[in-house]
Amino acid sequence: MRINMILIALVVVVGVFVARYADKMVVPANHAEKSEAGTATRSSSVTTIPDPSVDPSQYGQPSGSQPNKLPEVIRMSPTSKAVTLRGDARGHFKVDARVDGRHLDFLVDTGASAVAMRASDAARLNIHPSESEYTVKTQTANGIGYAALARVNVIEIENIVVRDVMIYIHPDKLLSENLLGMTFLSRIRFTYDRGKLILDQ
């Protein structure tokens, strides 16, 4: 009888101890929610540092712009040096240029590989090639012939200035007018726009 009473007392003590230990192991629901919320807050505060070597615009999102914002169309404006030429009845563009300080008329010709000048106009610049210097074979509107190679210090069209320009000098019978070719034009900008030719530098 006494043994049974001792066993019952031990069972009661163990039961109480287990119940108290289980209570300590249970986490309150509101505490769990707070913990989860804290985790979410910490996660959302993580800042992604962009790689400076990556251009955001290549992925369709320009840096610092609003999503899906289309770029503005930028039209380049001529500078203060721009010269506008209007075509004649044949659509040709002629210009008065200063070559080493002397005024000469030119036909703008983007198909000419170099500035071409009549021998009589070259003489006005004190350029007098000898017959033996006409060694460059050329094709003009007047036929096949030979030109002399020379250089001028400067060609100016209003505020446009190009220095040290290579030119071809042709006999007058092969060249009816001076041509402003690519040894000048390749060193400036030129644009054709609705019947006008705009030279710029």
| Name of the level-1 CATH class of one domain | Mainly Beta
Supply the number of helical segments. Answer: 4
Query: Which class of secondary structure composition applies to the elements?
Result: alpha+beta
Named at the architecture level, the CATH assignment of one domain is Beta Barrel
Superfamily at the CATH H level of one domain? Acid Proteases
Choose one word for the global shape. elongated
CATH fold-level topology of one domain: Cathepsin D, subunit A, domain 1
Estimated radius of gyration: 44 Å
Q: CA-to-CA gap between the ends?
A: 120 Å
Multimeric organization = single chain
Poorly predicted tracts of residues: 24-76
Q: Largest sheet, if any?
A: 7 strands, mixed
User: Level of helix content?
Assistant: 10-25%
Please provide the count of β strands: 10
Strand content: 25-35%
Series of H and E elements: HHEEEEHEEEEHEE
Task: Let me know the average pLDDT.
Answer: 75
Overview of this protein structure:
With 201 residues, this protein is α+β, with helices and mostly antiparallel strands. It has a domain of 118 residues: Beta Barrel (Cathepsin D, subunit A, domain 1). Helix content is 25%, strand content 33%. It contains four helices and ten strands. The strands form two sheets. Strands 2, 3, 4, 5, 6, 7 and 8 form a seven-stranded mixed β-sheet that branches. A three-stranded antiparallel β-sheet has the order 1-10-9, with no helix packed on it. The longest helix is centred in the first third of the chain and has 24 residues. The N and C termini lie far apart (120 Å). About 26% of the residues have low confidence.
